[in-house]
Amino acid sequence: MNNFFSILKKYRQIIKYTPIHLIFLIFMMISSCGVPEFAKPTKVSKDTPMGAKERARKNVEEGRGVSLKGMMSGKKSTNYEFSTSNPLWRASLEIIDFMPLATVDYSGGIIITDWYTDGQNFDESIKITVRFLSNEIRSDSIKIIVHNKKCRINQNCAVNEIDSNIKFELQKSILRKAALIEKEIKKSK
What we know:
By secondary structure, the protein is α+β, with helices and mostly antiparallel strands. The chain has helices spanning 2-10, 12-17, 19-32, 52-61, 68-73, 87-95, 165-188, and strands spanning 101-105, 110-113, 124-132, 142-151, 157-162.
């Protein structure tokens, strides 16, 4: 781009008078720009197979792919755990199932409810966020945040994080339910 500005300074007087020089300047500008690093092709190792079937076979052998043979033999090449087999996750969803959910992301480890009101006081509602810090059933494995929204007339609302009994009761209920789910899983095996 520095070349462009130097050329522009050089040909400033000519550009005003001849359109051919303007075309020449545009050509110089285009040809002087280099290809950015991200757009340059990367070198491929000579060991990388060219055909799709060979590449797929190599990926399965290196543990980066899935094969029917590997699935049937019970060998697990990844440590991905599905949400249905995570007792803490299942317990959290079961405990807050009465609330509408806004965001549920197992891979990100977060559940966020929508604003909920109990039907008695329409000027006040709560929102719960459950973050999963670990898959172990322990009190420090989940973090619960409760927000309270109080609205006055004309939708003038104030939102605050609250540190009330709701937070601790939810955590206790989720951990108790997760322990029961894990006990049932172990008993069924």
